Amino acid sequence: MSDDGFTFLPGGLRLKKSDPLFDSLGALDELNAALGLLRVALAGEPDAMLIESLQGQILQVGSELANSKAALGMDAVIALEKEIASRLAGWPPLHGFVRPGTDEVTARAHWARAVCRRAERELVRARESHPDRIFSTALAYLDRLSSLLFAMTRAKEQ
Fold first, then answer.
1. How far from chain centre, in Å, is Cα 151?
2. Model pLDDT, residue 3
3. Domain map of the chain by residue range?
4. How far apart are CA 142 and CA 145, in angstroms?
5. CA-CA distances (angstroms) from residue 68 to 10, 26, 32, 35, 158?
6. Alpha carbon of 93 to those of 8, 22, 90, 151, 156: distances in Å?
7. Tens-place pLDDT, residues 21-60
8. Could you tell me which residues are beta bridge partners of residue 7?
């Protein structure tokens, strides 16, 4: 049986699979996979547990999109901001671009950061047609998450 290019979300909402909401959900899925690869590369390090926690929060953002119910609070964004500040404390400002690939961990973190930025852009696009499903907290969270991933790479590359 064919689905004719449509699918249902929880609550019965039927949308075309080409809808920007599914691009957002797919980008979040890719981000979670990229974070999973980073977590494996960090096995045995404290940051592996942090990444696992972040993966759970990405699942919450996806749940928000699918269910149109806020799941992630500003406390998650604030926690990211504190983590970023602690990692960058004392570092001088950058005066150029960073080339990813110093080692496997930083390359994977840079890749996860790039996927995170794309997911953020996809959510912004989806918000135009689904303002009731894309919450400001989710956008702020993805913005801060990409900054945290960059901060993680900076500390390892210096």
1. 15
2. 72
3. 16-84+99-157
4. 5
5. 9, 16, 20, 24, 42
6. 47, 37, 9, 12, 16
7. 999 999 999 999 999 999 999 999 999 999 999 999 999 9
8. 15
Partners of 6 in the beta sheet? Answer: 16
How distant, in Å, are the alpha carbons of 38, 62, 98 from that of 123? 23, 10, 26
Asked if residue 94 lies in contact with residue 147, where contact means CB atoms within 8 angstroms, the answer is no
pLDDT at 1 over 60: no
pLDDT for residue 144 is more than 60: yes
How far, in Å, CA of 50 to CA of 158, rounded? 21
Domain 16-84+99-157: give its CATH superfamily: Cobalamin adenosyltransferase-like (1.20.1200.10)
Burial of 24 (0-12, 13-18, 19+ CB in 10 A): buried
